[in-house]
């Protein structure tokens, strides 16, 4: 059953020689036992990224992403998964967690020192994972793993820029340090975890295709064990990623459909706009809050009509609440 798959991969991917495999594996394994330099560079990257996010400077944040060495343990995790080495897998995760906690702690300290802070776009764009974020992380993981396997070191700085690992950690630290709320903190951490999972799965695929995984022979008990362990570790990564993607798609659908219905309901009211929509599910009921700017107040009956329209579109019980900001419109002839 595996022979056709193996033939397809062999035709399109150049396998590494035994000597190349040994060199690549040794280089990647070094990421599971980082030196003090790893923590020093992580701390410095956290300082740079936190300050960049606070002042809203994209270039500074990009610089921090180049400095941060957090990609190495993630790809070590991919190699451990494809080779079925549980001890190496656990070691890689442990080192990534240490680096993440250090970055968050540094961001908390820096944020606490800052006298005042306004939410910047650099902050807000990293408080919730989207399918685009997952796509970028997955593609970056493919590129990073391929560059390491083929020893294309000149591409690694560019790959580091595309991988968003240090900024979400710093956003979480800023949120904790300034007590901005758990919504921001958990959103940033979810983005970080989503990116880690996507990169790990992408690295797994590339390392397997270039021949760094277990041998294909099934008549040896040890090899079968390695293959089964490899598959189990892959599923350990793939299942959470699938759940995150499904949750993100569902949230996107709910927000898009809700905005479409509400905008249709207010289309006939001049100068009325929807600023923001957020929701919370409790049991079978979806509680929707919409922030609206309008020159007129909505009656309870009108809100009930909008709630019914939402219920019909989404096919579930809805509890709609409008937060209306009254505005005054003035024309040149008034």
SSE blueprint and pairings:
Elements: H1 3-12, H2 18-29, H3 36-55, H4 58-67, H5 71-83, H6 86-113, H7 121-124, H8 131-149, H9 156-162, H10 166-177, H11 182-209, H12 221-265, E1 273-282, E2 285-294, H13 300-314, E3 317-326
Parallel strand pairs: 2-3
Antiparallel strand pairs: 1-2
Descriptors for this entry?
334 residues, mainly alpha, elongated
Structure characterization notes:
This protein is mainly alpha-helical. The longest helix has 45 residues, at 221-265. The chain has a three-stranded mixed beta sheet, covered by helices on one side. 67% of the residues lie in helices and 9% in strands. The model has no long low-confidence stretch (mean pLDDT 78). The N and C termini lie far apart (79 Å). It is elongated. It folds into two domains: 3-245, no CATH class; 266-326, GMP Synthetase, Chain A, domain 3, CATH 3.30.300. The relative contact order is 0.10.
């Amino acid at each position: 059953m595996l022979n056709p798959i193996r033939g397809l991969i062999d035709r399109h991917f150049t396998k590494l020689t035994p000597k190349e495999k040994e060199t690549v594996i040794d280089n990647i394994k070094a990421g599971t036992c980082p030196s003090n330099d790893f923590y020093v560079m992580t701390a410095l990257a956290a300082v740079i990224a936190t300050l960049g996010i606070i002042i809203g400077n994209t270039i500074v944040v990009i610089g921090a992403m180049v400095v941060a060495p957090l990609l190495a343990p993630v790809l070590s995790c991919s190699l451990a998964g494809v080779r079925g080495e549980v001890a190496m897998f656990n070691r890689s995760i442990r080192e990534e967690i240490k680096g993440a906690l250090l970055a968050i702690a540094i961001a908390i300290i820096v944020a606490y020192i800052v006298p005042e802070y306004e939410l910047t776009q650099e902050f807000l764009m990293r408080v919730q994972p989207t399918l685009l974020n997952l796509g970028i992380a997955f593609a970056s993981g493919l590129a990073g793993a391929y560059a390491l396997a083929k020893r294309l070191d000149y591409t690694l700085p560019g790959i580091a820029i595309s991988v968003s690992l240090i900024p979400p950690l710093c956003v979480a630290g800023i949120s904790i340090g300034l007590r901005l709320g758990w919504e921001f903190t958990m959103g940033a951490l979810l983005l970080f975890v989503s990116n880690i999972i996507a990169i790990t799965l992408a690295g797994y695929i590339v390392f397997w295709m270039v021949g760094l995984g277990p041998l294909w022979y099934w008549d040896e008990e040890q090899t079968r064990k390695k293959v089964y362990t490899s598959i189990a570790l892959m599923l350990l990564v793939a299942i959470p990623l699938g759940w995150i993607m499904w949750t993100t798609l569902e949230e996107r659908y709910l927000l898009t459909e809700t905005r479409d219905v509400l905008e249709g309901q207010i289309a006939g009211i001049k100068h009325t706009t929807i600023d923001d929509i957020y929701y919370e599910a409790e049991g079978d009921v979806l509680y929707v809050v919409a922030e609206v700017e309008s020159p007129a107040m909505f009656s309870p009956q009108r809100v009930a009509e909008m709630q019914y329209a939402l219920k019909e579109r989404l096919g579930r019980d809805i509890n709609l609440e409008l937060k209306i900001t009254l505005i005054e419109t003035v024309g040149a002839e008034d």
